[in-house]
Amino acid sequence: MNDHREVPELLGSTLRDLRLQHGLTLRDMADKTGLSTGFLSKVERGFSQPSINNLHKICYVLHIAIDDLATPQRDSQRPEHPHPAAPGSPLIKKGQRSLIYSVNHMVKLESIFSASSSYKLDVLTLTGGKVEYASKHRYEEVGIVSQGRMEIQFETGQTYLMDEGDVLQIPADTEHTVRNLSESPCVSFWFKLMDQGDDGEL
Asked: How many whole angstroms separate alpha carbon 112 and alpha carbon 67?
């Protein structure tokens, strides 16, 4: 089995387990997310990979943060760090990040730190030119661009251009669209302040 296929299968099985834990049928999920039962079934069986927009909708219904779907990288992908960071270790090497999402070499989201229920840290890599996606979540988020240039537009119409070193605060429950403005990869780090009462996403 190749690496490209393994990620959707791991993601799908995790989503199916979480759905069953919540006592939800595929029809329930379809009604709550606006996605078809056929599509959701394909996602759970690893035959289809959801867009980031759709994955956020699924996470919201399941009352989880997208970080909860992170899986360790395969050893062959990160040969310099064949083992994940030890539980409780204050140091996490670059090669020990956990993959949350990767599609068509255009969007990759990795979890750096997700052990705390109060905060999480992710790294988002956008490639392939004009890449964009929409998101809305129940927690406050602070991001800094380390490479490239990106644009974030709030649902209110406010648009922010972020260059390397720029920092942006996104309030909770604010729908926003993220766009890559660089021809080269755009890399940004996102610190999430979780609401311990409910950390779901949309």
From this structure: 9
Cα–Cα distance, 127 to 131 (Å, whole number):
7
Distance CA 36, CA 8 (A): 18
d(CA 62, CA 165): 34
Alpha-carbon gap, residue 22 to 25, rounded angstroms: 9
The Cα 44–Cα 111 span in angstroms is 21
Instruction: Count structural domains, the chain.
Output: 2
- pTM over the 0.90 mark: no
Domain that holds residue 20: 3-50
Higher pLDDT, 195 or 134: 134
Mode of pairing for the β-strands spanning 167-170 and 140-147: antiparallel
Task: Judge contact between 64 and 58, C-beta under 8 A.
Answer: no
What six digits make up the tokens of 191? 């610190």
CATH of the domain at 44: 1.10.260.40
Instruction: State the pLDDT confidence band at 162, using cuts at 50, 70 and 90.
Output: very high
Rg of the chain on CA atoms, in Å: 17
Strand order in the sheet with 98-103: 71-72, 98-103, 107-113, 119-126, 186-193, 140-147, 167-170
Q: Which two tokens stand for residue 71?
A: 């899986």
